[in-house]
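Recall from the previous lesson that a structure prediction takes nothing but the amino acid sequence as input. Here we apply that procedure to Heterodisulfide reductase from Desulfolutivibrio sulfodismutans. The sequence below is the only information supplied.
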Amino acid sequence: MEKYGLYLGCNIPFKAPDIEQSFRKVFPALGIEVTDLPGAGCCPAWGTAPSFDLTTWCTVSGRNITIAEDLGVPIMTGCNSCFGVLSEAKHFIEADASRKKIVNEKLGAINREFRGTSDIYHISHVLHDTVGVEKIKESLKYSLDGMTIAVQPGCHILWPSDVYHVKEKNSFFPTQLKELVEALGASAPHYSRLEACCGMGGMRSTDVEKSLELFKTKILSIKEELDPDCIATTCSSCFLQFDMSQKTLKERGEIDFEIPVFYYTQLLALAMGFDPANVAAISVTPRDAVIAEIQSETRKVKEEEHS
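The prediction returns the following tokens.
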């Protein structure tokens, strides 16, 4: 059984703990051992140290990476921002010997040393490349055959691809999430704004109206081009944006629909037969109907139960 250090970040445990529970259900069931990273802190997020001081950023990120190094495991995170911040920090430390020296001098004050022995993976990389779509197909209790799902990979898992050790084959035409959704039996058609930003992150914090305008362009593209049963993302920030902003736009009269939103591992957990009360319990956008449809008797492909 392969083993990964689970780096949760901030958004998932604080705002979407049911996403965390979906991780803890599906990975062991798929043969991946997940271990916690005791003492891990903020990655740090883009709007903090990465915005003003490269050495501080690399030191804080480096400390988090050393926790995994001490355990002898690679890092696996479900947050695109954490993936990007940690991956870029690792690149900046390793690409500059003088910076690595300074970072390790600072880390030495807390008896830590960055060695560069732990790679950074996103949850979608582990599911797609390590577990594989065939094993996912074999694990399903329910099939999503006939459903249409719009995929939202998010930005920081894709770019800047030139500094990522682990990445898509083509960041301008991402296929991993599409293939993971298709492994559930659903279709995941392309749409014109697939690679576009949803407006979350720093923009949401500094200019809500610009953020909502970007989001509106994206959600209208999804609705008009696909009219999907739901949306699947592997970015916790994108999940929050899609989940909370549809209600805002609808209350303003700018859209007249709401599309249920899931983090991918929530859909996977539901299709594997896990209890929705554990793995898909928290959302602003209504999704009870699509959850009931996913776990309906007509979609059952095998009888095994998960606890």
